[in-house]
Amino acid sequence: MAGLVEFKTDDGAVVAVEAVEEQRPGSRLVARGDGTVQAARTFEGALEGVRAAAESALRVFRDGALRPDGVEIEFGVKLAAETGAVIAKGSAEGHLVVRLTWSPAPSSPAQPEPSAAPSEPSAAS
After folding, report:
1. In whole angstroms, what is the distance from residue 36 CA to residue 86 CA?
2. Predicted confidence pLDDT, tens digits, the chain (125 residues)
């Protein structure tokens, strides 16, 4: 059953997120009467692994032979009280969408074609 997990940010704000219940053997966190669990890590600390994964993925796509102008990476993220952020399982084994973009090469400004000089009417003699 999903519940709420409260994460504190580094500056003391509280972020409440809906989290999935972790399926791990052994001890379990007990929620307060309202079903809210206090996270063991800060919000920033919970997302640290996802940030590291994003940096690594960006490095792979930017440093390769493709050299895209833009890289967009989308992670599905689940937040859990004990483990922090986990890259969520999607329709495949993990949820990761990558979009690479390239801008068209700048074309040089069109040079006007030389035009023939207008012919002047010849003077009749």
Report:
1. 19
2. 457 888 889 999 988 887 665 555 544 444 445 668 888 888 898 888 888 988 998 888 888 788 899 999 888 887 777 767 766 665 445 667 889 999 987 776 666 555 555 555 555 55
